[in-house]
Every structure is written in structure tokens, then in C-alpha cells.
Amino acid sequence: MNTADLGLPVAVPSTALFTDQYELTMLQAALRSGTADRHSVFEVFTRRLPEGRRYGVVGGTGRVLDAVENFRFDETILGFLRERGILDEPTLDWLAGFRFRGDIWGYPEGEVYFPGSPVMRVEGTFAEAVLLETVILSILNHDSAVAAAASRMSVAAGGRPLVEMGARRTHELAAVAAARAAYVGGFHTTSDLAAGFRYNIPTVGTSAHAFTLLHDTERDAFTAQVDTLGSGTTLLVDTFDVAEAVRTAVEVAGPGLGAVRIDSGDLLLIAHRVRQQLDELGATKTKIVVTSDLDEYAIASLAAAPVDAYGVGTQLVTGSGHPTCSMVYKLVARADSDTPGTPLRPVAKRSMGAKTSLGGRKWAARRLDADGIADAEVIGTGPVPAELADRQLLVPLVSGGTVVAREPLDAARDRHIAARDQLPLSASQLSRGEAVLPTEYL
Amino acid sequence: MNTADLGLPVAVPSTALFTDQYELTMLQAALRSGTADRHSVFEVFTRRLPEGRRYGVVGGTGRVLDAVENFRFDETILGFLRERGILDEPTLDWLAGFRFRGDIWGYPEGEVYFPGSPVMRVEGTFAEAVLLETVILSILNHDSAVAAAASRMSVAAGGRPLVEMGARRTHELAAVAAARAAYVGGFHTTSDLAAGFRYNIPTVGTSAHAFTLLHDTERDAFTAQVDTLGSGTTLLVDTFDVAEAVRTAVEVAGPGLGAVRIDSGDLLLIAHRVRQQLDELGATKTKIVVTSDLDEYAIASLAAAPVDAYGVGTQLVTGSGHPTCSMVYKLVARADSDTPGTPLRPVAKRSMGAKTSLGGRKWAARRLDADGIADAEVIGTGPVPAELADRQLLVPLVSGGTVVAREPLDAARDRHIAARDQLPLSASQLSRGEAVLPTEYL
User: Fold this and answer.
1) pLDDT in tens, A392-416
2) Test the B interface: residue of A12, A65, A66, A168 with most B CBs within 10 Å
3) Which family does it belong to (chains A, B) (predicted)?
4) What is d(CA A79, CA A119) in angstroms, rounded to the nearest whole number?
5) Which of B277, B304, B321 is a domain's end point?
6) What is the DSSP letter of B127?
């Protein structure tokens, strides 16, 4: 299968392998028992937000569309499943012709969500819908975790530019998805070339401590960098003595030096000192970039400091304490037979424990108050009340197997900012608390 | 570039894009200043273990070798870098012919490590060695985090089988690497088909709650499953009422039923009840698998329960609270000129803050006491003391650009168990504490 047209940093021969074995053994058993073609509705939702978080952010929807489009079983994969004795021949035959022909609805990417929000709904035969569980959850759980952390950092930064630089702290391909999710959540640029290549996110980067240490003197290093990258570059000033480095930097680059970067120490204190020194040296336009183990709290604590941009790594790509969401993919309704038109029956697990859920195909709408501020996430299984009809959150993503909702990444980014702006003010609090909107079931 | 021979679940056209932009701008500046060919030594190490952890586990070494071998700049990548204006033409020309021709030494995969352990050393020209920073750190930081969590869970499980089932909780390709790292750390099987395909890890999986809910009755579902997967299958018994499900399961499959799986509720209590019920029904050989939000503590708490296997998801693939290691890649020595044979000068950042490190090319050895138990991680830059000569930890991985240390994954897994067994007994404590070995510098 040629997927080069997706422009991935790695060509994905098929996403069908990103699947837990039990999806396939369930398929085999359902084919055998004659239930495989029962019309089924699966929904993706979380039972709760990560502890203390005020809202979630849907990330990865666009990647889900790529994954669904590429979910095919080629000869190599079928051969593997056969050789391992995982599936019988009728099931392998069925998979050979598989493509998803059902419908997917979902919260559009960048939208916020709350406990119970049906962020995605997959509808089709049981056979085709069950197969997508693992890859859809992988993508949404990872990307939404990063998008939520990015959103909090973006709130904390109050409009100052944010650079994603966490590639080295996470799996090399998770890093590409993380850069994408960070952009959706409000980041501006990334250090990750693969993310620039694949998703057209602006990339940045100039030098590390190793570059200074490579040269005989710091001055040699700065001169080499300015010679080739120009005086608009960012010089890293904390390899030896910061004050001396700043003086050298301005001597070498002139007062038009683009920026200095501080990557260690007491950033608040150092930023103030460096700003004063730069101003005294006439480098009043030279910016200060800080990049040392930042999270949303550290960013917020620098709000009053003369800092012009933040670079964030570890805490961003690991979701700032919550590296995954707890999204699940649950069968919520299915037909009693495979005869077309058979009414759907709501279903749900109902044993002891916290893992129960609400059966039935759901709609969701965000209710606004008189000032246009969101005041509830309303979820229901019956008819949508007229006053909520134009506030519905689920949109068609895939119709009859065809992707219908491709969009530029900037659309998701803009949507996130708009959705966040419509939340109550408490959404911008970093402190731990409850979800800013209650979930109401109709 | 054809990398199909690597058998990746996705063909990687090149790993060169998994790189932070500053590696390339440093290259350009070094080429301009005439320092690019200075012989350089970079080392990968952590300054500390995650809080409370007793030891680290090296994971991902084998994947690093794949990444280094595939680190090439093809026309597509060069075109991207040119079009974005990231690099000048001399640098693009240099990259067009690039392949790493230096040497890499490292702790072999599965080995344990401690604060300061030089887990990998990359040596060559500055130009070739600096380029590998990002991708090497991505792989080691991610895979080692999962391997360490897996190791703790494996200790807690005390020999009972562990199933990796976290694919849905992490990025779809991080999941494949996580399954691999979990295997190195002591897991036995995975639910992830891509991990089975790529790394030949045994895969398992039978059914989810959706399969039961698809059918008109639980009995129908169990019958369908047993009909096609045989009575040796694992039936999921907690969709409705566990006791009723266990009764039905044994009726349908007979006393030869392979296993039942419990995925919710008070696992300790339920496992005891289910065991008693199974025994009363004559299904004395039927195993009990538990799979609900387990981590190493939950596994340990079930040590006295009649549980035969654990399935672990979220907490495994997110490193059980520590989803990344804090490995860094630091220039520790370099020549003053590019004349061959120029002696190496130790270098290190030395500004304020916690980010200082020790210059010089290091060796490392694990000292044993009279009983053959490890008592120190000894690291030095001078000659290796004779009594430690045969306890050295770094082995050649790449020589003159050629990979020299490919090995089956089982070798890394066996090595991990052997290395762990040689640690003081406190290594098996799950409680928070200090590293079980002190790091001594000679």
C-alpha cells in the first residue's frame, strides 16, 4: 500500500498492526457466531479528567483520520497472522478485503471536553468498528494528553511564544505527534524537524552547550555562530559565566543580537540581571529565551520576569504529570440482528466497580449562559432540545468510509483558543480543582 | 533508502528527521569555523534516578543501532531543509554524503545503571557525533523508562506471567517500543500485534466486554468464543455478575477452560471467590488473569491471591509515574584541532545550577563484594584498576560506523535478569529509597 501521499516522516504500510490481538479474535468469534454484522455504536469518552484538571483538549483527530484510511491488511500482515496461528482462514479472507465503510463522528480537534463527553463515535458493523479500537485510543489518549498540557502552558505564558523542544524526552515518533498536539494546544514552534516536515510547524533552534565547549573560547563559539546564522541568532549564555557571556555576545553580534538563551539556574533572577545588562549594553531589542525544566507553574512564575519566550520539553511531551488520558472505547448500542433497519439496543457493562458506563448513542452540546460563556456539557440519548440544536459538539469525520473532515492544523489550533475562551474564567487557573463545566445527562 | 530489511512495522525512510534543528545549525556553524572535524566524545548519562527508584534499566540499545544505521539525508529531507532556509548549501552538500563513521560504546541492553553511569558513549568528529543526539536520547529515555517500570513489576510478580497491554494508552509506535522494552524488563507477552510482528514477542488476547455485549446473552458470547478459540481460551467474566459468569463459563467450556479474566472491582477479594468457585466446579486447572489498572504495588498486593497472570497497561507504558528518564548527551572531551592524534581535552559546562557534569572520557565497572553481590558503580577517567578490568560495563556497539552488537531480544532480557540478581536485595523493594549502589568516581 502506497501511503507516501500522506507525507509521513515514516511511510506507514498499514496502521492495522497497531491493534491488540483481541480485536481480531473477537472478530473471528463474531464471524463464527453470526454476530459480526450487527450494526454497532462505539463511543470514546473518559470517566474523569486527570486529577485537578479543569478541562480536557481533543488532540489527534486528524491523525485518527489518517490511521482509519490506512487500516488495511496486506499480504505481509496476513502472512504474519497466519503463521502465528492467531486467526483462521475465513477470518484472514475477510480481513484481506477489509476497509472501514462505516461512519465516525467526533468532537473536532482542539475542542475541549469533560468527563463523559463522547469525543468520538464509531458506527458500523461490529466487525469493522471493533477493529479500530486500539489505534483510535492510542492516538487520542496520547495526543490529547499533550494538547491539554500545552493548553495550560499556553494560558500560563499569556501570549509569549512557546517552543516545543521535548523530542529527546519521548519516543521519536511520539515526539512528532507531541509537537503537533502542542501546536494545537497553543504552542508556536518546535525544535523537531520531523514535525516541521510532516505538519509544516515552524521549526527553530540554534546551538547547545556542546557548541561552546567545542571551541577554544566562548567568543570563538559565538563568532562562529553569528558568522553563519547572522546577528539575529540566539546565543546560549550559560555555559560558563552568564554576565561575561552576555557581554561577549553583544560584542560579537552587536546590539542587534536576536536573543540570548538561559538554560539553567534561577531563571527569575538571571532573567532580570540579563535584561538589565542587555539594556545597559544598548541591546534593548535583544530577547531572552528560557528553557530549563519548565512546566506551566514555572512559566506562570516567570510572568513578571523580562522573558520573551519559553522552550518546554519534558513536561510538555509527558503531559505535565498526566502522560495519557483515560479514554475508553465502549460498545454503547447494537442491533439484535444483522437485518438492516433493526433498532439499536443500548448496552453497557454493569458489574461492580467503577467501570460502568451509560448505554445508548449520545449527542453532546455545550450550553451557554446569557453572556455567551459555557455553563454545562449536556449529553443525551434522546432528541436534542431545540435550544441546544446549534450548540452540538459532534461533527461528521468519516461518512461511509470516506474521510470528510480534513482540515489544516491551524484550524484546530484556532478552534482550541476559541473553545477555551468560551469557558468560565476558572479554566485558566492552574491550581487543582474540579472540571469547570458540569456534565449534565438528559 | 530501502529499510524494509529492518522489518519495522513502519518502514523508516530515514531516522535523520528525528533531530532537533539545533544539531544541524551547530553543524553548519562548526563547518564554517573549521571545528567540525575536531575529534569529540559525547556521553549519555543521568544525573539522578527518578525519585525513590533503586536502579535504572538500559532499554532501547538495539533500536539505537537501527536508528544510527538509517541516519541518512535523502533528497526529500535535503529539499525540505533547503526550502525552509534552515541550512546553507555547503552544509546540505555535507549532509548528502553523511553516514556515521565513528564509534559507539555502551552498557548493553538490559544492564542496570545508576546516577552518572555512562550508559552510552559516542565518539567521532564533532559533526558526526552531534547529529545523533536527539534520536539517541529519544530512544533511550523512552525505552529505559518503560524497561525500569517493567523490571519493578516483574519483581513484584515473583515469576507469574506478565502481559503487556498498554498500546491503547500511548502513541501507537511508542507502544511497539514499549512492548519491546517491557519484554527486556521481564514481561512475557504483549497484546500489541505490531510488537509481535516487529520483535517476535509472543502475542496474546481473546475478548473484551464489547464481545459479551454484542451477543444476546453472556452464554451466547462464551459459546461463540469457545467454538472458535477452543476451551483453552480466556473468558472475560466481569461484564455482568462474576459468579454467574464463572458458572456459565465452566458450563460452556467444561472444566478444561483455560482461564478467566477479571478486569474490574476488588481483585483480591474477587480472585479468592473465583478460585473457590472454579475449584468447586472442578475447574481446578483454570487460571485467573487480572487486568485492571495494575501497577507494581497492585501486583505486589496480589502476591498472596490466587492469581495466575497479570495484564498491565497504562502504568507500564507510562513508566509507572516516570514516563521518561533524564538522560542527557554531553560533550565530555574534544581535540583542540582536527589534526589526527591531537590529545583530547576534557570539557564540561560549569555555570551555576545543577547542570554541571564531569568532563573526560569515562570507563565504568561494577564492583562486587566477596559474595559476588554488586557493591558500587565505579566510574573513572584514568586507567582502569586491574581488579575492575573484567567488570567493565561499556561494550562496543558500533565500530567505524559498523554495527557490531546486534543480538536477539532474549539476550537483553536474560542479561537484565542476571544483572538484577546481582544487585543487593534492597533492589527488590518497591518502597522509595536511594539507589542501591553508590556511584564512586576514581
Assistant:
1) 999 999 999 999 999 999 999 999 9
2) A168
3) Belongs to the NAPRTase family.
4) 35
5) B321
6) H
Distance from CA of A284 to the nearest CA of B (A): 24
Question: How does strand B103-106 pair with strand B395-399?
Answer: antiparallel
How much is the pLDDT for B136? 98
Residue B25 has its nearest CB partner, among A213, A229, A336, at: A229
CATH number at residue B56: 3.20.140.10
> What's the CA gap between B304 and B268, in Å, rounded?
9
Q: For A219-238, what is the mean pLDDT?
A: 98
Residues A212 and A169 in one domain: yes
Which residues of chain B neighbour A228 with C-beta distances below 8 Å?
Answer: 28-29, 32-33, 88
Residue A86 sits at the chain B interface (C-beta within 8 Å): yes
What share of chain B has pLDDT > 70, as a percent?
96
- Contact residues on chain B for A336, CB-CB shorter than 8 A: 216
Please, are residues A361 and A102 in contact by the beta-carbon 8 Å criterion?
Answer: no
Please give, rounded to a whole number of angstroms, the shortest distance from the CA of B403 to a CA of chain A: 20
State the virtual CA torsion across A55, A56, A62, A63 in degrees, nearest 10.
160
Closest approach of chain B CAs to the CA of A98, in angstroms?
17
Cβ contacts of A173 on chain B, cutoff 8 Å: 18, 171, 173-174
Beta-carbon count within 10 A of A109 CB: 30
pLDDT digits (tens, 9 = 90+) for B41-67: 999 999 999 999 999 999 999 999 999
What does the pLDDT look like over A240-281, one tens digit per residue?
999 999 999 999 999 999 999 999 999 999 999 999 999 999
Do A70 and A50 have their domain in common? yes
Which percentage of chain A shows pLDDT scores above 70? 96
- Asked whether residue A148 is domain-assigned, the answer is no
Q: Are residues A311 and A333 in the same domain?
A: no
Instruction: Read off the pLDDT of residues A30-58 as tens digits, 9 standing for 90 and up.
Output: 999 999 999 999 999 999 999 999 999 99
Give the Cα separation of A344 and A39 in Å (integer): 8
Question: What local confidence, expressed as pLDDT, does residue B6 receive?
Answer: 37
In this prediction the ipTM stands at: 0.96
Q: Is residue A150 part of a domain?
A: no
- Find residues 369-428 of chain B whose CB sits inside 8 Å of chain A: none
Q: Tell me which of A436 and A6 has the higher pLDDT.
A: A436
- Is A68 in the same domain as A169? no
pTM, 2 dp: 0.97
CA torsion sign for B53, B57, B60, B61 is positive
Q: Does residue B264 sit at the A interface (CB-CB below 8 Å)?
A: yes
Nearest C-alpha of chain B: how many angstroms from A29? 5
pLDDT digit string, tens, across residues B199-244: 999 999 999 999 999 999 999 999 999 999 999 999 999 999 999 9
Q: Which amino acid is at B299?
A: I
Task: Identify the domain containing residue B342 by its residue range.
Answer: 4-131+327-441
For the segment A191-201, the average pLDDT, to the nearest whole number, is 95
Q: Are A162 and A305 in a shared domain? A: yes
Three cell numbers, residue B128: 558526526
Chain B residues close to A223, C-beta within 8 Å: 33
pLDDT at A107 over 70: yes
Instruction: Tell me: do A177 and A267 sit in the same domain.
Output: yes
pLDDT tier for residue B14 given thresholds of 50, 70 and 90:
confident
* B202-241 residues touching A, CB cutoff 8 A: 203-211, 213-216, 220, 223-225, 227-229, 238-241
Contacts of B314 in chain A (CB under 8 A): 324, 326
Q: Nearest-CA neighbor of A234 among B354, B21, B32?
A: B21
CA distance, residue A415 to nearest chain B CA (Å)? 23
Task: Give, to the nearest 10 degrees, the angle between helix B21-33 and helix B89-96.
Answer: 110
What's the number of CA atoms in the CB half-sphere (13 Å) around residue A323? 30
B310 and B342 housed in the same domain: no
Whether A264 sits inside 8 A of B19 (CB atoms) is no
Instruction: Say yes or no for a CB contact (<8 Å) between B224 and A29.
Output: yes
**DSSP H/E element including A90:** helix A89-96
The partner residue sitting opposite B227, judged by closest CB among A32, A264, A336, is A32
- The number of distinct structural domains making up chain B is 2
Q: By the CB < 8 Å criterion, does B324 face chain A?
A: yes
Q: What is the mean predicted confidence (pLDDT) over B271-295?
A: 97
